[in-house]
Amino acid sequence: MTQNIYDDETFFAGYSRLPRSIHGLDGAPEWPVLRGMLPQLAGRKVLDLGCGFGWFCRFAAGEGAASVLGVDVSEKMLERAQRETDDSRVSYERADLERYTPPADAFDLAYSSLAFHYIEDLAGLFGQVHAALKPGGALVCSVEHPIMTAPTRQEWLTDADGRAAWPVNGYLDEGRRVSNWLTEGVVKRHRAVATHLDLLLGAGFRLDRLVEWAPSPEQVTAEPAWTRERERPFFLLIAAARS
Amino acid sequence: MTQNIYDDETFFAGYSRLPRSIHGLDGAPEWPVLRGMLPQLAGRKVLDLGCGFGWFCRFAAGEGAASVLGVDVSEKMLERAQRETDDSRVSYERADLERYTPPADAFDLAYSSLAFHYIEDLAGLFGQVHAALKPGGALVCSVEHPIMTAPTRQEWLTDADGRAAWPVNGYLDEGRRVSNWLTEGVVKRHRAVATHLDLLLGAGFRLDRLVEWAPSPEQVTAEPAWTRERERPFFLLIAAARS
């Protein structure tokens, strides 16, 4: 079973204070790009895997989606999601994505933001998602970029010119990574870019777009503390379709 | 025009001493994986972009290809390729890939080994390759991995645990990189993984497979000096098809 770190008191308190938890999608700097990768939502049936506080579910309903099902393992997150949602087209379900079987041929879009890097059996989940989509249906998702998740010591180094350098090692050694983000002992899964694509193509998806996201030059100008974050990609954004 | 570094005396002398120049494909550690990405060659028409000494051209002919056209900008390399080729199905042509137009709808396979990272207008070349392939034809190619080409100082660092770490920076800043490999001032183009895929999909290709190649554990056992080379991918291998 996937570690349910979001129900850890310390983690949840920290996560709740992040801009993306306070301001929702507009507090997530990658959102404008991820949004641009979405198909039209009006009239569509949407599945959100790892829906958290339900920001995307409410957004999709606001765009006119016919129905939105948000799934998450965290009781605390779903409790708040439910509380903040007043739309009969949106429903929530508590489930561990590691062993979740959504209804088959039911969705036009499967969406997932920063959840898949917690999943151990991603091949299995991609298979479930493929089966849950209608033919031609889309999968749009984000994960931490493998350049971020690879290193055993995720700390900036400095090169001989004095420039910040992100220390990549262990890239080929996929699997468990333990980081101290918001609390100690957060378990994520490191997978190469190629592995994500292999698993998608293997599950029967067609790749439509891949983005290696980092803050844009404009975002760095507005938030100078992010300058270093443009040295390497931060998130991997993927758009694929059931072909 | 692309820098024609292979006709530089010092570079050519150094390149000629590499295992892959002496032993051909079997001297290239990525070859077994790249070979596994090829379609059947018997009876097929093959284009090799950046054919160098013609090793792959002769291999393809040996596998029963109907015809093989090798293209390269280097006079010195083509001179040796010609000299070592005794097969009427193989022909060579000297051209700068930056402005090369192969015949349209003519090939079943376009192959390119470690040449595209010298190309400035890769979108243009992918467009040419797409037009040169018959419908359903394959493109199989390798480039230096963007994790390799990104940093301005391509020198290993050591992390706080004493482990070798490859210094990634400048990943989002695509373009010219000058390295001192075999001689000084070798100009390559850094492009993100996502950019390679964007350009391929934009040219009308379908992605069939992506491999982030590093020496296998077995290769490292046989060649212990390569241990560090498994810390990050070395080459990007791509299989795509004209869809």
Topology of this protein?
Two copies of one chain form a homodimer.
Chain A: H1 9-16, H2 19-22, H3 31-36, E1 45-49, H4 55-62, E2 67-72, H5 75-83, E3 90-94, E4 107-113, H6 122-132, E5 133-144, H7 146-149, E6 157-158, E7 164-168, E8 175-181, E9 183-190, H8 193-202, E10 205-213, H9 217-222, E11 235-242
Parallel strand pairs in A: 1-2, 1-4, 2-3, 4-5
Antiparallel strand pairs in A: 5-11, 6-7, 8-9, 10-11
What does this structure look like?
Two copies of one chain form a homodimer. With 243 residues, chain A is of the alpha/beta class. Chain A has a single domain, classed as 3-Layer(aba) Sandwich (Rossmann fold). In chain A, 27% of the residues lie in helices and 30% in strands. Chain A contains nine helices and eleven strands. Chain A has helices at 9-16, 19-22, 31-36, 55-62, 75-83, 122-132, 146-149, 193-202, 217-222; strands spanning 45-49, 67-72, 90-94, 107-113, 133-144, 157-158, 164-168, 175-181, 183-190, 205-213, 235-242. In chain A, the strands form three sheets. A seven-stranded mixed sheet of chain A has the order 3-2-1-4-5-11-10, with helices on both faces. The longest helix of chain A is centred in the middle third of the chain and has 11 residues, at 122-132. The radius of gyration of chain A is 18 Å and the shape is globular. The two termini of chain A are 30 Å apart.
pLDDT < 50 stretches of chain A:
none
Count of individual helical segments of chain A: 9
CATH C-level class of chain A is Alpha Beta
Q: Which structural category fits the helices and strands of chain A?
A: alpha/beta
| Helical content band of chain A | 25-40%
What is the name of the CATH superfamily of chain A?
Answer: Vaccinia Virus protein VP39
Largest sheet of chain A: 7 strands, mixed
User: Do you know the CATH architecture of chain A?
Assistant: 3-Layer(aba) Sandwich
Shape of chain A: globular
Order of helices and strands of chain A: HHHEHEHEEHEHEEEEHEHE
Tell me the count of domains of chain A: 1
| Strand percent estimate of chain A | 25-35%
Distance, first to last CA of chain A: 30 Å
Indicate the mean pLDDT of chain A.
Answer: 96
Quaternary structure type: homodimer
